[in-house]
Design a protein that fits this description.
The chain contains three helices and 24 strands. By secondary structure, the protein is mostly beta strands. Strands 5-4-13-8-9 form a five-stranded mixed sheet. Strands 6, 7, 10, 11 and 12 form a five-stranded antiparallel sheet that branches. The structure holds ligand MTE.
Length: about 350
């Protein structure tokens, strides 16, 4: 696809193209489309909206093929949701981390508009035995498996039935009030609020209702972690977002003036439960104080926070940290847990500032 790359985005890999947002991502509660990161595993498929069809099949009573016009017949809904790539921030983990080297801006928040998935599932009638729904994108390509084989495949991910039928999950056709752009899944994509981005399948072409767990490539080889379960260790797909926060101002390496009053600010988010508190440390994580939560709470979007700080008089370096907690008591950890590989990188991220004389 010929892409007019917004000057705001930064390439992290080419063919397939993966682009990270600019620093300004942390300046607005809703991310403009041109500043929204792009994560593609294959080339962007060229889709003609007139002939595009979404097939809903498998263990359903009334299989259907929906076009753009049929989707329009359903009632539409808007959900503000933050989407973060499961590999966001992995560049800070060093060489051991495999995958696209995202810094901290493979994340964005949009007003997603479209049809609640459960309306469509109600219409086709899920069989009683259905445990998962598989979502298949129209993009295809060849990837190497860990035993060295080359296989052609589509991008596909599944959701367990309870999440697929939750009210917030959308077949989205709009982003910030405009039709989706090709990079973000035109003409329709799944949006799974509360889950890492890999679940929000773009360029939807099929939804398949199945009676067993789906073991597709993008949830066993990729986007999966080893999890201890009943004395065994099992491979499980990455799912809900872990609690995390980010300091948007000041940025790493920034100079600030001694003795000045400044407002540190950023965002905090998590997949389960609202952000209940954010704390800030101005002494490298030795001690923390509460920050103020700002703006309004949207259950699936990041929450702004602020902290007033009188910069000390002594010039030199200082390490700032932020740490978030959800209503469920989930707290951002101090260190990365390598059992997750280079996914779910939510440890407290130190930011160094340089205090200069007045
Ligand atoms: N859907 C398809 N069909 N193909 C993809 O490569 N990438 C996934 C998800 N949906 C992907 C996809 C991943 S890993 C992420 S993080 C999000 O899309 C990114 O969405 P965005 O490109 O709109 O930011």
């Amino acid at each position: 696809m010929k892409r007019e790359v917004s000057r705001e985005l930064v390439y992290r890999s080419r063919q397939p193209d993966n682009l990270e947002g600019p620093r300004q991502v942390f300046d607005a509660s809703v991310t403009p489309v041109e500043a929204f990161f792009v994560r593609n595993h294959f080339d962007v498929p060229e889709i003609d909206a007139e002939s595009w069809r979404l097939s809903v099949e498998g263990n359903v009573e009334r299989p259907r093929e929906l076009g753009v016009a049929e989707l329009d017949d359903f009632e539409h809904q808007t959900v503000r949701a933050t989407i973060e790539c499961a590999g966001n921030s992995r560049a800070h983990l060093g060489e051991r981390a495999q995958g696209v080297p995202w810094r901290d801006r493979a994340i964005g928040t949009a007003e997603w508009g479209g049809v609640p998935l459960r309306e469509v599932l109600d219409e086709v009638g899920l069989g009683d035995e259905v445990v998962e729904l598989i979502f298949v994108g129209a993009d295809r390509g060849t990837l190497e498996t860990n035993d060295g084989g080359q296989l052609e495949m589509s991008y596909a991910r599944s959701l367990p039935r309870p999440k697929a039928t939750a009210e917030e999950v959308l077949i989205a056709t709009h982003m910030n009030g405009e039709p989706l752009e090709a990079d973000h899944g035109f003409p329709a994509r799944l949006v799974v609020p509360g889950w890492y981005g890999m679940a929000s399948v773009k360029w939807l072409s099929r939804i398949i209702a199945v009676d067993q767990r789906f073991d597709g490539y993008f949830q066993t080889e990729d986007y999966a972690t080893w999890v201890p379960e009943h004395d065994l260790v099992v491979r499980r797909p990455v799912g809900p977002m872990a609690v995390k926060s980010h300091i948007g101002f000041p940025i790493d390496g920034q100079s600030i003036t001694a003795g000045e009053a400044v407002v540190l600010r950023g965002y905090a988010w998590g997949g389960r439960g609202n952000i209940e508190a954010v704390e800030v440390s101005v002494d490298g994580g030795k001690s923390y104080e509460p920050a103020d939560l700002a703006g309004t709470n949207h259950p699936f979007a990041w929450r702004a926070w602020e902290y007033e700080w009188v910069v000390p008089d002594e010039p030199g370096e200082r390490i700032l940290c932020s740490r978030a907690r959800t209503g469920d008591g989930e707290v951002q950890p101090d260190h990365h847990d390598w059992r997750r590989g280079a996914y779910i990188v939510n440890a407290v991220r130190p930011v160094k500032v340089v205090i200069t004389g007045e």
